[in-house]
Amino acid sequence: RMSAIPRLTRNAEAGTEFSKNFKLFNKKKEQYSASRTSGNMEAAKALALEMDQYWSKLVEIEPVLWDEAVQSHGKSLKQHELYKEACQITAVAAQKNCVVNLYRYFCKKDRASKTYVFTKNNPILKNRAEAFQGNDYSKSWRTPEDHVFETCEATHEPDTGLLLEARMGIEVNLAAARGAQNELHLQARERYKAYLALRKAQDDAGALTMAAGVDRIWTEATTQHEKVLSLLQRGKEVETEICRLTAEAYPDTCTQFSVETCLKQSEPYQKLLSMSDDKDITTTRYEQSWRKPRDQDKAIISACLLDNSTNKGVVKTISGRAFIERGIKTLPAKVGSRVKVGDKINVEEGSRVSIELFGSGLITITEKTSFQIPETESAPSFKEESVVKKTMSEAWHKVKHLLKGDSFEIKTPTAVCGVRG
Fold first, then answer.
1. Could you say which DSSP state residue 255 is in?
2. How far is CA 169 from CA 235, 271, 274, in A?
3. Is 405 left (phi over 0), alpha (psi -120 to 50) or beta?
4. Rounded to whole angstroms, how far apart are CA atoms 256 and 41?
């Protein structure tokens, strides 16, 4: 806690009297400022006269305290030199194995170097004004403004009705926009976690779909963030205009109603300033995409794979061993493997494979089964027919959706079955 008087002052009576008047002066100063702000100039004038009396007492006592502080400082410096010399004597005596207790309080033995070091701080006396908390008692406490006590009355009623309505609307919309932004940010985080899980599982198709969802939410969150910034700026403009109209309603001599003073005392305006410094407002995360370079590359690759007409599906699960025959090549089937037009999937004994057919559904193939992906045939009416030729012991197919007029057929050497939409 800072003292109203220099630390080196030893005159208790003068110090107590000074501190008492200093506290009373500051108390009256707070009341005086409040009276001027509210326009009660009669009360402000009376309080100013009381402050003059306390200030006079402070001006009378201050030189006494300062002179004593200077003298005390000089004595401390001399004492400092004596203590330093005593410490040196102690060190010499210690080296001669002579025990000296008188000045050990001022000397600290350094265990590493086995020497004595003088540790008492040299007293510091600040400049005169700084020693008294920045108050210059050689001058009056009054500024030119404090000599004017003209009664401040409005010359007309400021027309702020529409602006006050706008303030209420901004407060409501700002709260809603911030709430929506926070909710979207939480959704984006959850979707991003799901996206990473799909990437880890090598489910490129699912990861691409999830990434598209994150993109959508991120765009909405960015829009809400821009809305919040716009509302904050609009709110500040409204508060500034309210203060401007209020200031115009009072004479120029009533400086307590200036625009600057009004804004400092405006609770809505100060709230907007505080909100503008919030980390959720100052964040720059919406200035760029949520995607890292690897996410961009993966999305592009996945999009190309999905858009490629030769890719008909992807291996979702596999138990045991299965192979993909592609021309003269035979590739081991793995989770995430793409199946193309003309590929034949051979499932060995005791094995099972599930394949996601793009645009159709999930098919599960069991052991000792050969499954071939045919070309897609286009009829003149532009309706597509998906045909699967295979020999099998058993297979299940879960049709997700078929366009109107589409069909899905399974052909075996002895029978044909299908689903038509």
1. G
2. 10, 15, 19
3. left
4. 11
Residue 338 bridge partners (DSSP): 314
The dihedral through the CA atoms of 111, 113, 114, 116 has a sign that is negative
CA–CA gap between residue 402 and residue 385 (Å, rounded): 10
pLDDT tens-place values along the chain, 421 residues long? 345 555 555 567 888 888 899 999 999 999 988 887 776 778 888 999 999 999 999 999 888 888 887 777 777 777 767 766 766 666 666 665 454 444 444 555 655 555 555 555 545 566 676 767 777 888 889 988 888 776 777 788 888 889 999 999 999 999 999 999 889 989 988 998 998 888 888 777 788 888 888 888 988 988 999 999 999 999 999 999 999 998 888 877 676 678 888 888 888 999 999 888 888 888 887 777 888 777 765 444 454 444 445 677 888 889 999 999 988 788 898 888 888 888 899 999 999 999 888 766 788 888 888 888 766 544 333 333 344 444 444 444 544 444 445 555 555 555 555 554 4
> In this structure, are residues 222 and 230 in contact, taking their beta carbons and an 8 Å threshold?
no
In this structure, which amino acid lies at residue 411? Answer: K
* Phi, psi angles (nearest 5°) of residue 300: -65, -45
Q: What ranges make up the beta strands (E) of 31-156?
A: 107-110, 115-118
> What is the spatial distance between Cα 249 and Cα 156, in angstroms, rounded to a whole number?
5
Coil, strand, or helix at residue 307? helix
DSSP letter assigned to residue 369? E
pTM for this structure?
A: 0.44
Return the amino acid letter for 414. Answer: T
Query: Residue 346 is encoded by which pair of tokens?
Result: 């051979």
Q: Judge contact between 398 and 419, C-beta under 8 A.
A: no
